[in-house]
Amino acid sequence: VQLVESGGGLVQPGDSLRLSCEASGFTFNAYGMSWYRQVPGKERELVAAISGRGIYTEYADYAKGRFTISRDNAKTTLYLQMNGLKPEDTAMYYCTKQSRPWSPTDRGPWGQGTQVTVSS
User: Fold this and answer.
1) In sequence order, what DSSP letters do the residues of 81-118 get, joined into one string?
2) Tell me: the pLDDT tens digits for 5-19?
């Protein structure tokens, strides 16, 4: 399993970013996928999850209405569209593979992460 995140960067409050996670080494559409984030000194927390076929999604309360998780199974790529970014969204963002088509609390292998910094 290989997961490669990209798309992070330094943005101002209110800006948008789209994160990508390119996956390989497994049958992508057979597994749910998730985005997590982590700041130094705190535990990694779930941002959003999506089922294997993209039918089911789940979001952390802080992400509802601002973030959208999606996937392109033909491209074996997971996305996280983040709008209305706030300084408190600053974190390293990781994608992970669930163990089943829909098991949103699973934590599987991790990519290297992509840093998102929101600052004026």
Assistant:
1) EE-S--GGG-EEEEEEE-SSSS-TT----B---EEEEE
2) 999 999 999 999 999
